[in-house]
């Protein structure tokens, strides 16, 4: 016990101690945070669908028809027509042959990578990939190399060195979660083709957000030299929970045999599966949430630029990193905003590299222009 107490004390001294904030949601972008009414500029509910009438309705219908829990693994008795409907809808949405659902985006990365990548393989990953991708890469027994963020020269050298491996893999976030920049998919995909590698793209932040009807990051690049396999989550813009793989039917068939988090875990609960189906239905039938999101992204970007904040976020990405550098500065800014009724937690190492502590501001379709202007006002005074 002493060891744990000492470690906690060390983190406390470095201001790196994490705690779970006390939240009572009052809609997609409003909540009582530690009992104080706040506007949230940190949620990944980018389309504000967590409280959309159709999404709620589909979730309630699924709950009523299928019960509160799936009762067993998909391979035992938990594979309802509901799960299959969501997978079919996901494959249609992502324009792939097939899709397979898992309990979370984190588990999807772990499940897919550990099932597909083998000891004799070579895998290269961007240093700023999401923790779940990096953890999954460390878990597989293949030769694993990390390349500096977006560094195609290093990646190419690595791929050359991996030429004798049985198979090669490139693994990347589509939209990088803490910086909001988009992976150079055209170049990555060209390298994949030239070096006979597969490319897996984690589209957690592009799904529901980028491209026509929010089809995702790869919809921005329709003519890629090699088509990536997509991993995504239902838990962000799709307002539910769970993750998915979208790609060739044969690979889905293979994953059903090999993916341990699918085989040995209970199928996702009906209410969240219904919600995800509802969110896909909204994306198909109602352009308004996506249109609102894009207008809000534009307004926030313009406003940030006007107050002299360097904004590296691209086109329609709703993620804006405001880098403070020192942890203390980011924490101070976050506290000041909280005092003014905005909740934007500071993101500190090791979630982001040393010296790049930041506020990760995200905007949602559920914000009004007035919300955004008030935030900009508060940021100006920081
Ligand atoms: C959030 C996120 C995940 C994890 O998804 P969950 O459904 O929240 O478990 C995976 N990859 C990236 C890039 C993410 O941002």
A few lines on this structure:
This protein has 382 residues and is of the alpha/beta class. Helices cover 41% and strands 17% of the residues. The two termini are 41 Å apart.
- Percent of residues in helices comes to 40-55%
User: Could you say which structural class the secondary elements and strand pairing correspond to?
Assistant: alpha/beta
Uncertain stretches of 5 or more adjacent residues: none
Cofactors and ligands: pyridoxal-5'-phosphate
Alpha-carbon distance between the termini? 41 Å
Rg result = 21 Å
Determine the number of helices (DSSP H or I, runs of at least 4 residues): 13
What is the general shape? globular
Walk me through what this model shows.
The chain is α/β, with parallel strands linked by helices. The protein has 13 helices and 14 strands. The strands form three sheets. A seven-stranded mixed β-sheet has the order 4-10-9-8-7-5-6, sandwiched between helices. Strands 1-2-3-12 form a four-stranded mixed β-sheet. The chain has a three-stranded antiparallel β-sheet with strand order 11-14-13, covered by helices on one side. β2 and β3 (36-40) form a beta hairpin. The protein is globular, with a radius of gyration of 21 Å. The structure holds pyridoxal-5'-phosphate. Pyridoxal-5'-phosphate (PLP) is lined by residues 104-106, 109, 130, 132, 173, 177, 202, 204-205, 233, 235, 243.
